[in-house]
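Structure first, sequence second, as always.
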């Protein structure tokens, strides 16, 4: 058995029975990293010795659990190896946010999500590559190297959480955490055939997450299937009194909501064989009820646009038909301000970034321009920021500072905030008549490395379907739904704020009825 191919719930079942050990599982994943990461380049930092020490401690807990018999209780992720985006602070492990300006930063504390994962027994393998300060859609903006898509090493894995998505897709981790500001978990998940969740804004604490845009950033899991995503989300969600935007809402048992809902749909398979071909689906076996009966699924016309790759549209429309075959009722909905999401986001997010990134000045911590270390303060700051920040970060700081400047605040920033309200109202109105909304995660499959790097606008358009949800603060998940030209296509499922349960139930029902999520790249 290739242990690195396991999902979280598969691995846990084997650990509970004592059929494998956490050390064996962790070593198998570390060996996988050694075998393939030179080509994929998902990791910035690997902490192998630390991981094996944690695995040994986890095995000791499993021994105590089995000794206690059925009455024993273990943490939900005990002994499960994971990867963490470098945007998230990890005690004693370098956290650079993909930037040169933090190349020597070793946090003296853990982010809240790391505290929760540690308490759940998860094992840290290392920190994954990303676009600098989470600004990008391809991981080409990392100041270290470009991560490659395991499905085609000449293509991007998406971004900014491209390293986390590539690590999970290449079986270099059983799961990973990313951060999603304008699609940075969902878009790379869609391009790598993994599952990526953006929770409702405020559902997961941002404490210890290196800030990009504070009113948009959220931490979310990237996993191999929806059940794993539900498990990790349940672990990291919850109110945090240290974080002002964390919402004091009870956290449902998302896993129980999947299993307990009786979601056992008929198995469907692609009508045409190879994963390079996208066809309709045919039902395999007998129907065991309609798991989505009574569920109203909204399909927005604004998410099927001119210029969208035909294979992507075909895959998403085929996925909608699968949802209908599972008992769902599809309803066309209107989200009329969708076209304004991109300009709104690229005014608000850079404005917040220009404020958040002012702290990196070469004085308090992080990189300092060495030849100016003893110079006058303003010279140190200017040279450090000039050398430490990459081109995309500088572009967004300049754009954000301009939008906030005297004489332009009302014309740009304030107007963008008003349009943001209209975008949220679009979703509110749509959810009066539907339970979830579905559409494509990305307008195209993964593009070639270097294809859009010199055209920022084309790069920004890669997130055209993932920006509005962030602006509205609602949850969304990307799940595998097919292939176009041999590359993965993602289906995005959106729900009302704090209704991750319904969102995950629909995603799980679709996943259980299809085989797309089970496909793995050949490396």
């Amino acid at each position: 058995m290739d242990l690195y191919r396991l999902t979280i719930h598969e691995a846990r079942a084997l650990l509970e029975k004592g059929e494998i050990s956490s050390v064996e599982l962790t070593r198998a994943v570390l060996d996988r990293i050694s075998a393939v990461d030179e080509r994929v380049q998902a990791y910035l930092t690997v902490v192998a010795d630390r991981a094996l020490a944690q695995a040994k401690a986890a095995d000791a807990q499993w021994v105590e659990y089995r000794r206690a018999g059925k009455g024993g209780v273990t943490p939900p992720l005990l002994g499960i190896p994971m990867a963490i985006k470098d945007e998230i602070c990890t005690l004693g492990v370098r956290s650079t946010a993909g930037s040169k300006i933090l190349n020597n930063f070793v946090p003296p504390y853990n982010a809240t999500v790391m505290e929760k994962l540690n308490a759940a027994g998860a094992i840290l393998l290392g920190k994954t590559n990303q676009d600098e300060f989470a600004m990008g859609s391809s991981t080409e903006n990392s100041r270290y190297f470009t991560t490659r898509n395991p499905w085609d090493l000449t293509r991007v894995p998406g971004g900014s959480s491209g390293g986390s998505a590539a690590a999970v897709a290449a079986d270099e981790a059983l799961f990973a955490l990313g951060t999603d500001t304008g699609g940075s978990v969902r878009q790379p998940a869609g391009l790598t055939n993994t599952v990526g969740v953006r929770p409702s804004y405020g559902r997961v604490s941002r404490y210890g997450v290196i800030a990009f845009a504070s009113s948009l950033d959220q931490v979310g899991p990237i996993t191999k299937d929806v059940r794993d995503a539900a498990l990790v989300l349940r672990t990291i969600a919850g109110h945090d009194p240290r974080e002002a935007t964390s919402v004091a809402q009870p956290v449902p048992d998302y896993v129980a909501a999947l299993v307990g809902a009786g979601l056992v749909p008929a198995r469907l398979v692609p009508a045409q064989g190879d994963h390079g071909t996208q066809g309709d689906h045919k039902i395999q076996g007998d129907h065991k009820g309609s798991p989505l009966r009574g569920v109203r699924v909204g399909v927005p016309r604004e998410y099927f646009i001119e210029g969208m790759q035909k294979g992507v549209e075909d895959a998403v429309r085929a996925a909608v038909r699968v949802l209908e075959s599972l008992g769902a009722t599809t309803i066309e909905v209107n989200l009329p301000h969708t076209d304004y999401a991109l300009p709104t986001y690229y005014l608000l997010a850079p404005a917040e970034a220009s404020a958040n990134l002012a702290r990196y000045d070469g004085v308090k911590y992080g990189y300092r321009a060495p030849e100016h270390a003893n110079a006058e303060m303003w010279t140190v700051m200017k040279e450090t920021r000039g050398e430490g920040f990459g081109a995309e970060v500088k572009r967004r700081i300049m754009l954000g500072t301009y939008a906030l400047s005297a004489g332009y605040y009302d014309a740009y920033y304030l107007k963008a905030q008003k349009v943001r309200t209209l975008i949220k109202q679009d979703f509110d109105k749509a959810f009066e008549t539907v339970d979830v909304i579905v559409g494509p995660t990305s307008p195209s499959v993964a593009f070639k490395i270097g294809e859009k790097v010199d055209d920022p606008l084309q790069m920004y358009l890669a997130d055209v379907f993932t920006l509005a949800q962030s602006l509205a603060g609602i949850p969304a998940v990307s799940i595998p739904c097919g292939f176009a030209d041999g590359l993965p296509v993602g289906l995005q499922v959106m729900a009302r704020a704090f209704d991750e349960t319904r969102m995950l139930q629909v995603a799980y029902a679709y996943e259980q009825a299809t085989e797309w999520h089970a496909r793995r790249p050949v490396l």
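Margin note: Confidence is low (pLDDT under 50) at residues 263-287.
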